[in-house]
Amino acid sequence: MRVAKASLRGRRLARAIIKIREDAQLMVSEAAELAGFSQSKLTRIENLKIGIKAEDVATFCDALEVPSDVKSALIRLAGRAKGRRDWWVPYAKVLGDGIGWMELEADAVRAYSFTNDVVPGLLQTEAYCTAMIRMINTRNSGEDIEKRVAARMKRQERLKDSSLQLWSIIDEPALRRPMGGHDVMAEQIDHIIEMARLPHVSIQALTASTHSAIGVPFHMFLLDDGLGVVALDDLFGGTFLDDDGVFAGYMDTWNQLTAAALPFDHSIELLETLSRDHRSTSNESRSTNTERMEEEHAKRK
């Protein structure tokens, strides 16, 4: 099921309303009567024809005797569904369909990330991010690229304030690819090492030649309303899968990846080695270029 990215919070809220009603074994007409809604109103809410206000969420939850913690989470979600105060509003034009991804990260309490060709966005340095976005968005203006980079840096604030837990598995090719050059890559890997020292961030490097998710990078978010969502990155913002069975299947794959990847301490050792390798390659390249220039200068004399 592909979830409409711009209305992801609304879909989550409608799904929660349906689940509450179904768990109570009530028909739409019965639940509507208990909550003091018209049957038409509840039907339209469940079918995403209209949104549901926070006060209506509270009324519905009280009528169906929903636990207070679930009720509070859904009221918060209803308030956020309007999206008027979200940090990414000034970046909406350049983010486009990527707003759905911002919603997931903003509402998540825990994120899992497996990447095989790039460093995940939450761990990227500004220089690495700029190089990658310039490569992908060749038709964008310099100003748009700057805004995209700024938005990605803004996303990382939830890691800085410890409000989001991140577990990232990075395939070795992504760590060896010199995105932006070897100096940029060395700085990027040093940043990953620094982030891995935070108590709420876990990093593993994957060096296995074969594994259960080969060729299939993915991300998973456990949201503050209890919903699990799988996010598959693409050129148009991402595909989001909120089916419980799909999430469970990806979690099984995740567990296999964690077993195949290097332990945390060995991952840091590999990262330190790769950082030195990138710097050494960069220094050798500079030395070679200097020698070549000196030779050319000598020939001209």
Task: Characterise this structure.
The protein is α/β, with parallel strands linked by helices and 301 residues long. It folds into 2 domains: 77 residues, Orthogonal Bundle (434 Repressor (Amino-terminal Domain)); 195 residues, Endonuclease, Chain A, CATH 3.30.870. The chain is 57% helix and 12% strand. It has 14 helices and 6 strands. Helix 2 packs across helix 3. The longest helix has 37 residues. The protein starts with 7 loop residues before the first helix and ends with a helix.
Task: Supply the key terms.
301 residues, 434 Repressor (Amino-terminal Domain), 14 helices, alpha/beta, six-stranded mixed β-sheet, Endonuclease, Chain A, 6 strands
Secondary structure elements and their pairing?
Layout: H1 8-23, H2 28-35, H3 39-46, H4 54-63, H5 68-81, H6 92-95, H7 99-107, E1 108-115, H8 126-136, H9 142-155, H10 157-160, E2 165-171, H11 172-176, H12 182-196, E3 201-206, E4 218-223, E5 228-232, E6 239-241, H13 244-260, H14 264-300
Parallel strand pairs: 1-2, 2-3
Antiparallel strand pairs: 1-4, 4-5, 5-6
Helix pairs in contact: 1-5, 2-3, 2-4, 4-5, 8-9, 12-14
CATH topology of the largest domain: Endonuclease, Chain A
Strand order of the largest sheet: 3-2-1-4-5-6
Query: Helix-strand pattern, N to C?
Result: HHHHHHHEHHHEHHEEEEHH
Q: Fraction of residues in helices? A: 55-70%
The backbone outline, from C-alpha atoms, is elongated
Give start-end ranges of low-pLDDT stretches: 1-6
Number of helices: 14
Overall number of strands: 6
What is the number of independent domains? Answer: 2
Q: Architecture of the largest domain, according to CATH? A: 2-Layer Sandwich
Spatial extent as radius of gyration = 24 Å
Strand content: 5-15%
Protein name: Helix-turn-helix transcriptional regulator
Region (Disordered): 275-301
Pfam families: DUF5753 (PF19054), HTH_31 (PF13560)
Domain HTH cro/C1-type: 17-70
